[in-house]
Amino acid sequence: MSNRIQELFGVAGRTAVVTGGSRGIGEMIAEGFVDAGASVIITARKAEELQATADRLSEKLADGATVTAVPGDLSTVEGVTAFAEAVRAITPTVDILVNNAGATWGAPLDDYPESGWNKLMDVNLRGVFFLTQSLLPELRAAATAEHPARVINIGSVDGLRVPGMEVYAYSASKAAVHQLTRHLAARLAPEHVLVNAIAPGPFESKMMAFALEDEQMRAAVAADVPLGRIGTPDDMAGTALFLASRAGAYVTGAVLPVGGGIWSAQ
Fold it and tell me: Average per-residue pLDDT in the chain?
């Protein structure tokens, strides 16, 4: 790889925080950052699973880089505050924040529970806003005109379209994440903090496991994708690296669908 390409897409020497980083899309992004030379702090609720992911990623580290597991629950402001304080104890600056932690809930319209609605709004939306707010001092400390800090929010193609399944709070919360992304981008651009969102289609994750572990359902999901397949870790890692690196330094306020053409086909 040429030095020019490394300069464009590398994140060596930078520090990234990835929520929901123990598995699924969060793990894909964290691994991409590790491969590109970054130090990464990952968080999730299940400490044992989180540490196992950190241990695996640590085997791939570049010289001087680290992977740190910090268990946390980002569904409450208190949990967000505790995690932000733990991050500050590790690093004075955060170059990249990936707000990936999320949940889903499906139920018929007539029976959709308030508890499910509240849980998804807390995890998928409240956590995104208040963690970004809590880590703003560290993002601002890292940001310069030449090397802006980055916030990457993980939305969903279901926040761009009407999904076929009855996941009302999920699609509403992800649409809200997209709008929040635009609003934060406009506010923080003068401070050299770029805010963008990725709107994934189907990827291997716990949320999609109910469908992708069944061969017939997996085939049906893939058939709904114009490119005819499920997303791979490289698809997600490459997108995140673009937004986090010099290559994406002139992009802010964007919501980037990464779903094999699902959104464009609607």
Answer: 93
Q: Say whether pLDDT at 1 is over 90.
A: no
Q: Which of 112, 168, 170, 250 is catalytic?
A: 170
- C-alpha to C-alpha distance for 12 and 67, rounded to whole angstroms: 13
* Nearest C-alpha neighbor of 185 from the set 251, 125, 247, 258: 251
Report the DSSP beta bridge partners of residue 200: 258
Buried b (16+ CB within 10 A) or exposed e, 159-174: bbbebeeebbbbbbbb
The Cβ-side half-sphere exposure at 59, using a 13 Å CA radius, reads 5
Determine the pLDDT at residue 217.
Answer: 77
3-state helix, strand, coil in the chain (%, to 5): 50, 15, 35
Asked whether 171 and 162 are in contact (CB, 8 A), the reply is yes
Q: How many CB atoms lie within 10 A of CB 242?
A: 17
In this prediction the pTM is 0.94
Q: What is the Cα–Cα distance from 159 to 155, expressed in whole angstroms?
A: 7
Query: Would residue 170 show up in a list of annotated catalytic residues for this protein?
Result: yes
149-154: strand order across its sheet: 67-69, 39-43, 15-19, 96-99, 149-154, 193-200, 255-258
- What structural domains does the chain harbor? 13-258 (3.40.50.720)
Q: Compute the distance between CA of residue 194 and CA of residue 96 in angstroms, rounded to an integer.
A: 9
Residues in Cβ contact with 137 at an 8 Å cutoff, skipping those fewer than 6 apart: none
13 Rama sector, left if φ>0, alpha if ψ -120 to 50, beta otherwise: left
> Both tokens of residue 207?
């949320």
